[in-house]
Design a protein that fits this description.
alpha/beta, 6-stranded mixed β-sheet, two-stranded antiparallel sheet, 10 helices, Glycosyltransferase, Nucleotide-diphossugar_trans, Glycosyltransferase_domain
């Protein structure tokens, strides 16, 4: 048995004139040096990815967040998070915080700049109130020896969802001392998901199979997936379906003789044997990840060629509330 149904069908949706998740796209680039003079510029290598969102979603609002607008939003709506933001030694920590804040406040989709949109996202917003996307299961097994890991590079939620409220509340209690690298990224996001749904360590490996959903085979708590406070986990065929490129060689080695492996590795190798490593998007795939490693602090982004966001997106929304 693998980790989810093998499907080739449209994403679950309903006919509605009012989406459950508002049609807002949020992206951001917070510079390592907090320089506000070039706040609305991004490394040019992201241009191709960024252009795909208005191409397929021309009627969605596009919000771009910078150090300046992020701090202004915190000052006005979440002053309790300013200390964390100001003391966070790395831009990736500020960015991790702000993606939770902006989706909590406005609702919509957050996507890292190296995310490519392949088709309209309209139907994704019709049935569920919050959607978080699991990594390919090979990544969860290799990174954490668990059946799933939930990255924070792409997610969709309605505004004021209690899951995001919990995340912000927990971050507000974190104290950064000196240059400590407090991580509030994928591992933190996965733990917050488990906390929100009361998923114990034992439940983490619990198999839950239902013929009524194409969602993966792991226990997700007791809330019905269409409840206004629930979190839906989609099949990876719709989003983020290709394993991390760092795992190509290791996956091949681990699955060379899976009969001597643990149960979870055997399950992983079943998927690998059927699907291989390189997976082309299907006609039903919405997004794919470019793996540009924008979080890597060893990359000197200031030396890269930059482009104005306003040249990439024609109608950019920025936060100016006073």
């Amino acid at each position: 048995m693998g980790f989810q149904p093998f499907i080739d069908e449209e994403f679950p949706h309903v006919d509605t004139e009012v989406p459950r998740i508002p049609h807002n796209i949020h992206q951001m680039w917070i510079r390592h040096d907090n320089n506000t003079e070039t706040d609305m510029e991004v490394p040019q290598q992201f241009e191709e990815y960024m252009r795909t969102f208005p191409k397929w979603n021309p009627n969605w609002k596009y919000y771009f967040w910078t150090h300046l607008t992020s701090r202004k939003l915190l000052e006005q709506r979440h002053p309790e998070l300013l200390t964390f933001y100001d003391n966070a030694p790395y831009a990736v920590q500020k960015s991790d915080l702000m993606r939770y804040v902006v989706v909590y406040e406005f609702g919509g989709l957050y996507a890292d700049l190296d995310t490519r949109c392949l088709r309209s996202l309209d139907i994704v917003t019709t049935k569920y109130a919050c959607i978080v996307l699991p990594e390919p299961f090979e990544d969860g097994v290799i990174w954490e020896n668990t059946p799933y890991r939930i990255p924070n590079g792409v997610f969709l939620c309605r505004a004021k969802h209690p899951f995001l409220e919990q995340i912000l509340r927990n971050i507000s209690g974190i104290k950064i001392v000196g240059d400590s690298a407090v991580l509030i990224g994928p591992l933190f996001f996965t733990r917050q998901y488990r906390q929100y749904n009361n998923i114990s360590d034992k439940d983490m490996h619990r198999v839950a199979i239902s013929g009524e959903t194409s969602s993966p085979y792991f226990y997700k708590g007791e809330l019905p997936e269409t409840h206004q406070n629930a979190i839906y986990i989609p099949n990876t065929r719709y989003f983020l379906d290709t394993p991390h490129p760092w795992h190509r060689r290791k996956l091949s080695k681990m699955c060379a003789n899976p009969s001597n492996s643990t149960g979870i590795i055997k399950r992983m190798c079943i998927v690998y044997a059927i699907r291989g490593f390189d997976r082309k998007p299907s006609e039903f795939t919405f997004l794919e990840h470019g793996y540009t490693f924008s979080f890597n602090r060893s990359i000197n982004w200031s030396k890269r060629k930059h482009i104005s966001v306003n040249k990439v997106q024609s109608h950019v929304q920025t936060f100016n509330e006073t």
